[in-house]
TrEMBL record:
Residues 202-266 form the DUF5666 domain. PROSITE patterns: PROKAR_LIPOPROTEIN. InterPro entries: DUF4382, DUF5666. Residues 44-171 form the DUF4382 domain. It holds the Pfam family DUF4382. Keywords: Signal. This is Uncharacterized protein DUF4382. Residues 1-31 form the signal peptide. The keyword Disulfide bond does not apply. The keyword Signal applies. It comes from Acidipila rosea.
């Protein structure tokens, strides 16, 4: 797989029965040029993921259309039923679904992406948080699929469109331009490694049973269902039966060869009340912290990447922290070796990623009832080759001078730990990672904490190389399909 980790929209082509089980539907919309599943078409799940840029706190783009072309025949298939606004800076290696559609059997040699709008929140040259709408330099970009993607009844296929935010956004003073830069690749789901098959959705529970959970994404608001079985993991004391509708949960899953998505891990972030009312909340980056005379954190300001309940499309939110606020680590953070008690109010600092739930987000400050450490993706270069063996590695990342962690917390180098639970995406494996030399550009997805001595450590859950985006096809970089 080419360039997967840097932030991609991924299209998973699955069996008809499997995808309808995934989304709880009775049928799927049919893309242009395709026919019903029984007459030679397969449903396609469209998922989105991201790649961060050092000084970007949030980046949203409205995808107006995605079209697959069949080359000289001129046939094409639209795989997006309606425009979707997606956040392009928060998931890192993990994909989030945004659409399902039928795709006709055939061989597809190109992908055309249409962008109708983009907005970015970033740190300007004066160190201030700035939000701007971007002008769209190229409304439509076409890139080749090499090798071409063959869709048939032989098995599920995953198509990856990998955005590179560093080359997609151009920020010059107060002028922002968005010109989507991406890589493409396709493969049989059965041939992919586990890192390339990850899917994650954070949002409110719409429905739950002993065998499935349906969640409305806090990013796109679309509803998606995951199958649940005996291998699904939960935090201690949590079962599928204890999760109530309107709860906010994080579901991590993996695409299966039968077209379904299995929930590998379900982490409740809040519980809905007895009336089914969802709590307010947000997931994003802390940009400032307030302390009282004793040094205790009393409040912070964050840039949300996802919002829940009354927290809508806002570019900044204030959060009040009290003695009643509880703190938690998600299950995948604990699998990196972190203790469940290692995250508390003293650990909050600018540049950290958190998920907050509480009340009052529509009228002013969000009164935090629970704060959960969230994973974040950090692009950087290796200071030296990784040290270690047997999948346990230690290494140091050199951060760019414009990175928000450098701006807010003066972090120029970051100690990083990879372990048995760390996945490797795209062209990178655990073995090839160990052979990387100083200066290699990588992206690390994981959990960032500060220790009692003021040092920062990133606990990696996923690692991949950063690769150069492909050039658009000649004559197809602008205009409509």
């Amino acid at each position: 797989m080419n360039g997967w980790f840097r932030g991609k929209a991924s299209l998973v082509i699955a069996s008809f029965a499997g995808c309808c089980a995934l989304l709880g539907c009775s049928s799927a919309s049919t893309g242009a040029g395709s026919t019903a599943a029984s007459a030679g078409a397969a449903p396609m799940v469209v998922t989105v993921s991201d790649a961060p840029l050092g000084n970007i706190l949030s980046a949203k783009a409205t995808i107006a259309g995605i079209t697959l072309g069949q080359g000289s025949s001129g046939s094409s298939a639209s795989v997006l039923a309606q425009p979707e606004t997606v956040e392009l800076s928060g998931l890192g290696a993990l994909q989030e679904p945004i659409e399902i559609t039928n795709l006709a059997f055939g061989t597809y040699s190109s992908v055309t992406l249409n962008i109708s709008a983009a907005q970015v929140t970033y740190i300007n040259s004066s160190g201030q948080v700035t939000t701007a709408s971007a002008s769209i330099a190229q409304p439509a970009v076409t890139v080749a699929l090499s090798p071409a993607l063959a869709v048939s009844s032989q098995g599920e296929v995953q198509l990856q469109l990998a955005f590179n935010l560093a080359q997609s956004f151009n920020i010059a003073g107060s002028t922002v331009t968005f010109n989507p830069a991406m890589n493409t690749s396709g493969a049989q789901v059965s041939s992919e490694n586990s890192g390339d098959r990850h899917v994650e959705v954070t949002g409110a529970v719409v429905a739950v049973s002993s065998s499935a959970i349906t969640v409305a994404s806090g990013d796109s608001s679309r509803q998606f269902s995951f199958s649940v079985n005996s291998s699904t993991q939960f935090p201690s004391g949590v079962t599928i039966a204890s999760i109530q509708p309107a709860s906010i949960v994080q579901v991590q899953g993996q695409t299966q060869t039968d077209g379904t998505i299995l929930a590998q891990m379900i982490t409740p972030e809040s519980q809905g009340d007895s009336s089914g009312q969802q709590q307010d909340g947000a997931k994003g980056i802390i940009v400032s912290v307030a302390q009282d005379s004793t040094g205790a954190v009393t409040a912070f300001t964050m840039v949300p990447r996802e919002g829940f309940g009354a927290v809508g499309a806002t570019t900044s939110i204030s959060v009040d922290v009290s003695s009643a606020t509880t703190f938690d680590l998600p299950e995948d953070a604990q699998q990196t070796g972190l203790s469940s008690t290692s995250f508390n109010a003293a650990e909050l600092f600018p540049g950290q990623s958190v998920l907050v739930t509480g009340s009052g987000g529509s009228t002013g400050a969000l009164q935090a009832q629970k704060i959960v450490l969230a994973a974040e993706s950090i692009p950087a270069s290796l200071v030296a080759a990784p040290v270690g063996s047997s999948l346990d590695y230690h290494f140091t990342l050199a951060l760019p001078g414009t990175a928000f962690l450098t701006t807010y917390s003066k972090i120029t180098s970051l100690a990083t730990v990879a372990g048995q639970s760390t996945d490797y995406s795209g062209s990178l494996t655990a073995a090839s990672f160990a052979s990387l030399a100083a200066g290699a550009s990588i992206e690390v997805h994981g959990f960032l904490l500060v220790d009692t001595k003021g040092g920062y450590t990133l606990y990696a859950t996923e690692i991949a190389k950063v690769e150069t985006p492909e050039s658009p096809e000649s004559g197809n970089s602008t205009g409509d399909n």
